[in-house]
Amino acid sequence: MTLEQLTSYVAAQSSASAEGWYYLMTALMIAIHVGFLLYEVGASRMQNAVASGVKNLLAFAFMIPTFWLFGWYIYLAFPHGFVPMDMEGYGVPWNVSMGPMLSDQLTGVFWAAFTLFACTTASIFSGAVIERIRISSFVFLAVLLGSVCWNLGASWGWHYDGWLVTQFGFHDVAAAGVVHMIAGWFAFGVILNLGPRVGRYNSDGTMNELEGHDLRFSFIGLMMIIMGFFGFLGACLIWPGLGGLGMQEVTTWTQIYGAPATLSSFVYNTLMGMAGGMIGAFWMSKGNPFWMMSGALAGIFACASGLDVYYPGLAFVLGFVGGVIIIPANNLLHKIFKIDDPVGAIAVHGVGGTWGVLAMGIFASGVPGASSAIPDASLWGQIVGGLTMFAVGFVPGYGVSFVMKMMGWLRVPDHIQIAGLDKSELNLKATNY
Question: According to a count of CB atoms within 10 Å of the terminal CB, is the N or C end of the chain lower?
């Protein structure tokens, strides 16, 4: 074998290995959606359990074709703002890049991984609106979030040439801002217009607990989400030799911006942040297991922006703080805005993700950019990025749902809520006993 043949063979094997990696990470990410489905079915009352499950399945189903039709193009074409780059047709569904691509082993698996990221935003949103949103309205809003809003935020802050990255050094390697903040604050905007479930608040403003029918489903679901997030985080890394989606080729793993990273840093800090969040939330809630498991997620998001650079002990502390703050944040949001977030999605993802973005600026300012085109990480850059992610989520979530509310399209009528969505909308029930 000549040197040229050997080089070609090694390159082909590297590409095939990368294809296999993202294929497996995509499959593992599906566990996130199994988890969200179980989580929300358990958090729903019995008369709404089937509707909550159907809502999750439909969001997953609609996200895939819409991400193929326009979501992937939005991510690729808009890193510099609202004016698209000249992509020469790349990323649009009629281009060869969106076909079988027998000569390109990577476009399809990258698209698949990003599609599952988009599905995650929809699943985050779905828990906040259970038991009173119209299924059709939910699907429309989920597509808006996962195939438009998230893509734009990711193009700006999760792309090596995004303007937040190249101008402000925004650093968010595992998507505390570009996934969790956007989805959490989008949900906040929607439920301000959607209103609480019937019976959630009394006439004097006091709040009633509307407990789900089976917390065991929720616990299993939360653990499935955590398991699936190892696929999510694995897909946030770029395979050695691929050069960070177009940046200078390197021989090690890189994060999304093209700087060297390791699987060790990701697994160390994910586990430490998760443990810190569980302990912090368990302590803050005085032993509530629902919040303990939610704290595990918040702990992961608390260190997500800097997974590639944190010392594991710091990740544990950040996770602990994340687990502590989500409970008073959830209580404060309900007290001030009289919202109804049955699963604490806004606190866990919106507030937890915000803490993760800011923590990167507080504790890791000065981390150098992946290239000379990317400034060092800074608190100011993280603040600008965080405000952008809040706006990308909240503004369209509130604005579009407000129009839907005015048109009478958003909320299930109160008498149907009382009867239960399973019987009224689907003519089904969760069990036969």
Answer: C
